Amino acid sequence: GRCRELLVPGAAVYLEKGTNPNRKTAYDLIAVEKNGKLINMDAQAPNKVFAEWALQFDPTATAVHSEYRFGQSRLDFCLETPQGLHLVEVKGVTLEDGGHTRFPDAPTELGHRATAFFVIQMADVVDFAPNDATHPAFGEALRQAKAAGVNITAYSCRVTPDSMAIDQPVEVLL
């Protein structure tokens, strides 16, 4: 299943007690240690850290809107700039092997000025690339998006048991 390379017997995990009494489990998985590296597992964290950092990402932005409706689509963010809309779809990345990070999911189609922003939920990585071995169609779609003018960006994060913050740009290999 999901994250099977991280959720192995004996792995140190960080949990947070849930507040909803009707949920299936009593705790949320927040982070996992892998070879001494703390990897954030909170699925909501990438959008939260991007929202906090959006004006640094695009200093020309005059407003930031989350959960933005564009036609029939819902995008993670829309940054209003003097040049027009800058649409941003944020993806969290937790798959890592030897410092090389991968993302196996499918992208959202974007228009206008657009960015696919990959939040790598760990520090000290070498690069990022689509996981062609797991999902070749995603890799091809990402390369086509790049060719069509979509900005493909990846940043690593500083991760502690109770926080995550965008840190460093990571080389994107397409």
Would you mind describing this structure in some detail?
The chain is mostly beta strands and 174 residues long. Helices cover 14% and strands 47% of the residues. It is built from 2 helices and 13 strands. The chain has a 6-stranded mixed sheet with strand order 4-5-6-9-11-12. The protein has a 4-stranded mixed sheet with strand order 7-8-10-13. Residues 105-111 have low confidence and may be disordered.
Which terms summarize this structure?
13 strands; 4-stranded mixed beta sheet; 6-stranded mixed beta sheet; 174 residues
Layout of secondary structure:
Layout: E1 13-17, E2 27-34, E3 37-40, H1 45-57, E4 63-70, E5 73-81, E6 84-93, E7 95-97, E8 100-103, E9 113-120, E10 127-130, H2 136-147, E11 151-160, E12 163-169, E13 171-172
Gist of the model:
By secondary structure, the protein is mainly β. Helices cover 14% and strands 47% of the residues. The chain has helices at 45-57, 136-147, and strands spanning 13-17, 27-34, 37-40, 63-70, 73-81, 84-93, 95-97, 100-103, 113-120, 127-130, 151-160, 163-169, 171-172.
Regions with little confidence, pLDDT below 50 for 5+ residues: 105-111
- N-C termini distance: 26 Å
Give the topology string: H per helix, E per strand. EEEHEEEEEEEHEEE
How many separate helices? 2
Overall shape: it is: globular
Helix content: 10-25%
Helix/strand-derived class? mainly beta
Q: What is the alpha-carbon Rg in Å?
A: 17 Å
Total number of beta strands: 13
What value does the average pLDDT take? 88
Please state roughly what percent of the residues sit in beta strands, choosing from under 5%, 5-15%, 15-25%, 25-35%, 35-45% or over 45%.
over 45%
Mind summarizing the main beta sheet?
6 strands, mixed
**Taking strands numbered 1, 2, ... along the chain, how are they ordered across the largest sheet?**
4-5-6-9-11-12
